[in-house]
Amino acid sequence: MNRTTYQESTELIIQSAKNRKSLPVAAVNVHSLTEAYLDANGHGYRVKQFPLVVPDGQPVRWAMNLLRKPGQKSLQDRVRGPELMLRLCKRAAEEGISIFFYGSTKSVLRNLRINLTKQFPNLIVAGAISPPFRTLSPEEDAEHIRQISQSGAGIVFVSLGCPKQEKWAFEHRDKLDCPILCVGAAFDMHAGNLPEAPILMQDLGLEWLYRFVREPVRLWKRYMLFNPIYVILLCLQLMKLLPLRNPEY
């Protein structure tokens, strides 16, 4: 996990886009972090290879501050995936960097393009792909990478859900010479399909509750199982009964 800010993350990603350098980026919340801990050889291993992993959730930021070592800076704000995406689209529009969307449905991608280009008139959308909700054949996967590469996109936003999106970014990081950002539900939010939690709930770390109340059937396992596990693991680490697996803490 990187102790970073919106400004630092945005600058690094924009510079990587300008220099045509691969840069997989993950925005990590409680679900993703707990998944990484429990699946250390799969999701956990992949995320550790990412050059930039930003603290998406407030509980993750709080934990990083509680576990910080002497001399490490205290994080005043998290780096939320949907907000980071907006900031990058703004900079991309200003600097002529094209973007590409990968994931979600065709209707979401259509609305996403409309809303973002309305907000940022100079934004260049190089393309968008809605992959089928199944395992792709090697030929299909290669075709998608070909389309993204030939589009000349400077930044690729990926919304496939955790841990699928991180796996996709990890497996294709050497095939795309640009930043690849795993942004979770950001597509649905910016397309207008998924309302964002009130700012107060976000500040209090209760965004998960807002989303759970709206989608209990789909999200019950994530929040009812992973949240308690996260709290238990954090308490054990604070009591020094469990070693840290993430040296950036």
From TrEMBL:
Entry annotated with the keyword Transferase: yes
Pfam families tied to this protein: Glyco_tran_WecG
InterPro entries reported in the protein's UniProt record: WecG_TagA_CpsF (IPR004629)
Domain of life: Bacteria
Gene Ontology molecular function terms on file: hexosyltransferase activity
Ranges annotated as spanning the membrane: 223-242
Alphabetical UniProt keywords: Glycosyltransferase, Membrane, Transferase, Transmembrane, Transmembrane helix
Name of the protein this chain belongs to: WecB/TagA/CpsF family glycosyltransferase
The species this protein was found in: Limnofasciculus baicalensis BBK-W-15
